[in-house]
Amino acid sequence: MKIDVIIPTYHPQKRFLELVERLEDQTEPVNRIIIVNTEKEGFAELMDCEAFCHTHPKAELFHIPKESFDHGGARNMAVRRSDADFFVCMTQDALPADRYLIENLMKTLLGRDGTAAAYARQLAEDDCSLIERYTRQFNYPEQEFYKSKADIGRMGIKTYFCSNVCAVYRREIFEELGGFASPTIFNEDMILAAKAVQAGYSIGYAAKAQVVHSHNYSGWEQLTRNFDLGVSHAQYPEVFEGVPPEGEGMKLVKQTAGYLLKKAPWFLPKLVWQSGMKWLGYRLGKRYERLPGQLVVFLSMQKGYWRKTEKGAEFSQNKHR
Question: Is the pTM here over 0.85, yes or no?
Answer without folding.
Answer: yes
